[in-house]
């Protein structure tokens, strides 16, 4: 069984400030971890993923995340927020086997203040 | 070229009606999914098909019936629509191997009135 907890349903940052969105997971098998972004009235777009190998993964739009097995975390960061980053962000986990269905966190709404 | 396409994007219908949502992927993926996003934006898996065979069927009312005519298509038929079915439904697909992630369609916003 797998689960994802996203701390903070709403996060506000000023433009140019650090973005930190928190994600903790639970998985009985080695996990694959993902961050997706959803803009209003749109589908989900992959930001980045961790499957194996390097634990610090870089994604699109300047985002990155670090897989920390000891902390069961996969927090998303961006050094400098841009107004266009305002969106809903979802952390998700899937099993590392053949089953690839995603278990999502509850999402974090990121607001970027001018 | 849209990788995963769903139709329609918006669907407004009355209670009791039957409706279908279509999904097609041109990525050559073997596995397709339906997810439901509720009013609080929570996303949950409903069904998964691999090469036209049902492999996941979460606790979903049997009014919902997925159909996969081939591995590029996964349609969702809903009978006797209820108010609580109002949500955004997302189709997705994944390939095989290590470096695969789910590609999502744009979603179908279903409103039952």
Give an overview in words.
The complex is a heterodimer of chains A (114) and B (113). Chain A has no helices and eleven strands. Chain A has 114 residues and is mainly β. In chain A, the strands form two sheets. In chain A, strands 2, 4, 5, 9, 10 and 11 form a six-stranded mixed β-sheet that branches. A five-stranded antiparallel β-sheet of chain A has the order 1-3-8-7-6, with no helix packed on it. Chain A starts with a strand and ends with a strand. Chain B has 113 residues and is an all-beta fold. Helices cover 0% and strands 56% of the residues of chain B. Chain B has strands spanning 4-7, 10-13, 19-25, 31-37, 43-50, 53-57, 64-70, 73-78, 87-94, 103-104, 108-112. In chain B, the strands form two sheets. In chain B, strands 2, 4, 5, 6, 9, 10 and 11 form a seven-stranded mixed β-sheet that branches. In chain B, strands 1-3-8-7 form a four-stranded antiparallel β-sheet, with no helix packed on it. The model of chain B has no long low-confidence stretch (mean pLDDT 92). The interface between A and B is medium-sized, with 22 and 27 residues.
* Run of helices and strands of chain A: EEEEEEEEEEE
Structural class of chain A: mainly beta
What is the radius of gyration of chain A? 13 Å
Radius of gyration of chain B equals 13 Å
Which key features would you list for this structure?
heterodimer; A: 114 residues; mainly beta; 6-stranded mixed sheet; 5-stranded antiparallel sheet; 11 strands; B: 113 residues; 7-stranded mixed sheet; 4-stranded antiparallel sheet
């Amino acid at each position: 069984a797998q689960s994802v907890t996203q701390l903070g349903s709403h996060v506000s940052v000023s433009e140019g400030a650090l973005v930190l969105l928190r994600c903790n997971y639970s998985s009985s098998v080695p996990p694959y971890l993902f961050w997706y972004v959803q803009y209003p009235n749109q589908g989900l777009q992959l930001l980045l993923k961790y499957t194996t190998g390097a634990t610090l993964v870089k994604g699109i739009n300047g985002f990155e995340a670090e897989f920390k097995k000891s902390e069961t975390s996969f927090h998303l960061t961006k050094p400098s927020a841009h107004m266009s980053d305002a969106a809903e962000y979802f952390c998700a986990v899937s099993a590392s086997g053949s089953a690839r269905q995603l278990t999502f966190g509850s999402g974090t709404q990121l607001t970027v203040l001018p | 070229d849209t990788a995963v396409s769903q139709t329609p994007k918006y669907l407004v219908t009355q209670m009791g009606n039957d409706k279908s949502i279509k999904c097609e992927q041109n990525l050559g993926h073997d596995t397709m999914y339906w997810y439901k996003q509720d009013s609080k934006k929570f996303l949950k898996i409903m069904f998964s098909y691999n090469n036209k065979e049902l492999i996941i069927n979460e606790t979903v009312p049997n009014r919902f019936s997925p159909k996969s005519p081939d591995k590029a298509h996964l349609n969702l038929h809903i009978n006797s629509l209820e108010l609580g079915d109002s949500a955004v439904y997302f189709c997705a697909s994944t390939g095989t191997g290590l470096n695969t992630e789910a590609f999502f369609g744009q979603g179908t916003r279903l409103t039952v009135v």
